[in-house]
Design goal:
Blueprint lengths: L4 E4 L9 H16 L5 H8 L4 H10 L6 H16 L9 H5 L5 E5 L3 H10 L12 E3 L11 H9 L7 E5 L2 H9 L3 E5 L8 H9 L5 E2 L2 H10 L1
Parallel strand pairs: 1-2, 1-4, 2-3, 4-5, 5-6
């Protein structure tokens, strides 16, 4: 059945940027706490989450972070954005420009997400204040459904009429809790392994894509 609204995650879907934020948090964690975490360990604990949710996970591990910790993470993130380190997912613009109604619902905060969209020249071309929804607009981030429910409400749609494009496990779970159809986009190399694919399939996701050309074809058939 055709969906009225396509809800995009940003990091790992519109741009191959999730790995940048994970690496920055890995570095700061190891510098501040001498954890010795590698990238995979950091991603296993923190991947796909907002910083607010990341902080809660770290607290549960008795790794207590302060304001300075997150300010340092943000400083490194902004430097990466300014240095144009984000790579736009191939053919994603071709998908977006052929959609009737769409928005972004991301675990990033509003100000940082605007900078990310500006850096890839998507701000005011495809996204603006009317169709950008960020974690600082809700009480709980992914894997809770709050953000996706806010997006569909503000865009004037019902959950069953929305389709979410996600890459992270917590994002997929959030979409499912919201009662929305979800497709998993695993085009980033960090997700291209049998273990991650198995985790996605275990969540019951049937539509899994590695190329935005295939996403476009899937959406055109809806």
């Amino acid at each position: 059945m055709k969906k009225n609204l396509i809800i995009w995650d940003f990091d790992g879907v519109i741009a191959d940027s999730e790995k940048i934020w994970i690496k920055n948090r890995q570095d700061v964690l190891n510098e501040r706490f001498n954890l010795g975490w590698d990238f995979d360990t950091t991603n296993n604990y923190l991947g796909g989450m907002s910083d607010k949710s990341k902080r809660d996970v770290l607290n549960s591990l008795n790794i207590i972070t302060d304001k300075e910790f997150w300010e340092e993470c943000l400083k490194r993130d902004i430097n990466c954005i300014k240095n144009k380190e984000m790579i736009v997912t191939p053919y994603v613009e071709d998908v977006i420009k052929n959609l009737d109604k769409y928005c972004v619902a991301t675990g990033g905060v509003f100000t940082k997400t605007v900078e990310k969209l500006k850096s890839i020249n998507f701000w005011n071309k495809y996204f603006n204040e009317t169709n950008l929804f960020t974690v600082d607009m809700v009480e709980k981030g992914k894997p809770e459904p709050d953000l996706f429910l806010l997006a569909c409400e503000k865009m004037g749609e019902k959950p069953e009429d929305c389709l979410v494009i996600e890459d992270s496990l917590v994002g997929i779970m959030a979409a499912q809790k919201a009662g929305m159809e979800v497709i998993a986009f695993l085009g980033c190399k960090m997700y291209q392994n049998d273990e991650y694919l198995s985790k996605v399939k275990n969540l019951g996701v049937k539509n899994i894509f590695y190329d935005m050309k295939d996403v476009k074809e899937f959406l055109l058939k809806k």
